[in-house]
Design brief:
By secondary structure, the chain is an alpha+beta fold. Helices cover 32% and strands 26% of the residues.
């Protein structure tokens, strides 16, 4: 069994990299879940709110992109840390809602932040698992090359959700985050497990609008689908049932593996932070894994599902005043679109 679990994941130990700061930004437009009743009916929205845990979310208007939110967070972080811009060596932007098909949004952000041309900057196209993947990637760069790096993670998924699709429209909020990391030979190790199961790629997808199925008049047309929702082929489709099955299969072994690697048990851990996909899903995982509920962070009620941003957004929202004062042992887990999944057991703080 242990061999089979190992075959289903890539695991590694990273060292000499410290998270020294986090910042998050959300749009100014606040949407209460009750506002969705006009479109979907009060009874359906009440049921959805109860199962998802959603109460409100923040939505970007047409002029605000993910990079704008990440830029705000990054500027605040650089200022708060008193970092000189010439000291920054790496910039990674993780999102599935970039500014352009090309160039990479990381290049745009390098310019807007006024960073030097020595900066290594690139995009990672990932959603729900994106923060963990980004953290692993930039940690490897810093561990091998020293220096400082910015991990900018976020999404504006509301822009690709059909207004008439109850399976996605009420659920997704928008956010951008920035995480500052630097080489530090005295910091604790971090333990990562990552994996991919592309068999499920069609269960969370925008089917058209890129190069496999180019945008045209037909792909833009919204119509009633087999699940009774109205969307176009350029809108987000989600098979919630299949995503739930995937989550139950993959997350527990992954968390157990990083705990085994770190030699931690539930008593040692201060907080578990799961991707904020759905409260019912997280509750099910927590009960199945027998995790103390006071160690689990929930922010979906305040921000909705913010895709790749949900883990760092949860940290800045819920742990401010704690992580800036002492070292915390945290297990972070992302899972979803791709299917892609990742977990990290990391001890960090105090920050700033």
């Amino acid at each position: 069994k242990e061999f089979m679990v190992a075959k289903k994941m890539f695991c590694s130990t990273n060292e000499n990299v410290k998270i020294v700061g986090l910042a998050s930004a959300v749009p100014s437009t606040l949407v209460d879940i009750s506002q969705e009743e006009n479109n979907f009916g009060k009874e359906k929205i009440l049921r959805l709110a109860k199962s998802s845990g959603l109460k409100q979310k923040y939505i970007a208007n047409s002029s605000i992109c993910t990079s704008d939110l990440c830029l705000l967070a990054a500027k605040k972080l650089i200022k708060d840390l008193s970092w000189k811009k010439e000291s920054i060596d790496f910039l990674i932007f993780v999102s599935q809602t970039p500014d352009y098909v090309l160039p990479a949004t990381a290049c745009v952000l390098q310019k807007k932040l006024g960073l030097l041309s020595k900066v290594v900057a690139f995009d990672i196209n990932l959603g729900c698992s994106g923060f963990v993947y980004g953290l692993w990637t930039i940690s490897n760069f810093l561990s091998n090359n020293k220096g400082r790096g910015l991990l900018l993670v976020g999404d504006t998924i509301s822009k690709i959700a059909s207004p008439d699709d109850i399976s996605v429209k009420p659920l997704f909020g928008d956010a951008g985050t920035a995480t500052a990391l630097e080489y530090n030979s005295k910091t604790n190790k971090s333990f990562f497990c990552l994996g991919t199961d592309g068999e499920g790629y069609k269960n969370l997808i925008v089917p058209a609008g890129s190069f496999r199925n180019k945008s045209n008049k037909i792909t833009k047309q919204r119509k009633i689908r087999f699940d009774k929702n109205i969307r176009s082929d350029e809108d987000l489709y989600m098979n919630g049932g299949k995503i739930f099955e995937f989550t139950l299969e993959r997350v527990e072994p992954m968390v157990n593996k990083v705990l085994e690697m770190s030699k931690w048990d539930y008593k040692n851990i201060d907080f578990f932070i799961f991707h904020q996909a759905n409260k019912f899903m997280i509750d099910h995982l927590v009960n199945k894994m027998d995790i103390p509920k006071n160690k689990v962070l929930y922010t979906i009620e305040k921000f909705g599902n913010t895709s790749s941003a949900s883990i760092p957004l949860s940290i800045t929202d819920k742990l401010q005043g704690k992580i800036d004062k002492k070292n915390l042992k945290i297990v972070m887990t992302g899972f979803g679109v791709g299917y892609s999944f990742g977990a990290v057991a990391s001890s960090f703080g105090p920050i700033f």
